[in-house]
Design brief:
Chain lengths: 113, 111
């Protein structure tokens, strides 16, 4: 069974530029999560989707971050404009349902210069 | 305010010995606890979990113990192997709330 796929794996951009990350969850997983992981910290939830509906986006900085999960399968997380402090690893995870074990992708490491 | 705390940033253990990773939590509403393992440049991988109705769950070399009165859980790895060297994250949740992760403990198993 294929795992959670994320791309790109690495991204270097200059501040104020836009950036987008893509995630394809495990087939059949209805719940999709985007996490932010700063160096030396654990993952922190940005947004959770149940199918195509964002059910928890309270931690998403909506002035610059946006996400979508059209058709309830793959998802895109966007930052516009990026700031220096956005340098981190962005993890995507999926689970069959909201209370079930989450499976993580390899993450996208973002460096904002 | 950190709700899930892993107070040891790192731990070194000799191969074949027991590794004990500790985790404390402050939210008494947490009822489900998990351990994830993370290798460099990879995402966290689910290792083992425990519900608050249990005090122990075992899976091969890995055992998680939960002490609800002390709000403490621990992960035991016996025997430790070099391939166990990774960062271990403790996580907790309650009901439909998001998983809350600790900062992780880096385990080094020395051959």
């Amino acid at each position: 069974e294929a795992g959670v796929v994320q791309s790109p794996r690495y991204k270097i951009i200059e501040k104020k530029q836009p950036v987008a990350f893509w995630c394809n969850p495990i087939s059949g997983h209805n719940t999709l999560y985007w996490y932010l992981q700063n160096l030396g910290q654990g993952p922190e939830l940005l947004i959770r989707y149940e199918n195509e509906e964002a059910v928890d986006d309270s931690q998403l900085p909506k002035d610059r971050f946006s996400a979508e999960r059209l058709k309830g399968v793959d998802s895109t997380l966007k930052i516009q404009p990026a700031e220096l402090g956005d340098s981190a690893v962005y993890l995507c995870a999926s689970s069959p349902g909201p209370q079930e074990t989450q499976y993580f992708g390899p993450g996208t490491r973002l460096l904002v210069l | 305010d950190q709700q899930v705390k892993q107070n040891s940033p790192s731990l070194s253990v000799q191969e074949g010995r027991i590794s004990i990773l500790n985790c404390d939590y402050t939210n008494s509403m947490f009822d489900y606890f998990l351990w994830y393992k993370k290798y460099p440049a990879e995402g966290p991988t689910f290792l083992i979990s425990i519900s608050s109705i249990k005090d122990k769950n075992e899976d091969g070399r890995f055992t998680v113990f939960l002490n609800k009165s002390a709000k403490h859980l621990s992960l035991h790895i016996v025997p430790s192997q070099p391939g166990d060297s990774a960062v271990y994250f403790c996580a907790a949740s309650s009901g439909n709330t998001p998983l809350v992760f600790g900062k992780g403990t880096r385990l080094s198993v020395i051959a």
